[in-house]
Structure of Probable membrane transporter protein:
Amino acid sequence: MKKYLKFAVIGITAGLCNGLFGSGGGTVAVPCMEKFLGIKKTKAHASAIAIILPLTVISIFFYTKRGFFNFPLVWQTSLGGVFGGLIGAWVLKKIKPYILARIFGVFLIIAAVRMVF
């Protein structure tokens, strides 16, 4: 598959997940970037953040338009999210890729089990 087609497929899939579920774009983008583009784990995780930003902005627009967006909740939790993001970015620089992969895998398993049950 040509590289630009891979970019498009990964982007469309991540965007679809993000728009449909309100999350999950990075969950799709990270392993796809690793497997299909040969991107290292830490770079894939860091890049997923930048990929998700425009997807999130578009999703917010449509969720707000349909009355699903909770502004007070966003403002009340955003400060903690900013600090968590800073800590996560710092840890990402320090952590070994195989440990990151295991943590991410456990996170995905827990998320999947919670969704099913």
Notes: The helical segments are 3-21, 25-37, 41-65, 71-94, 97-116.
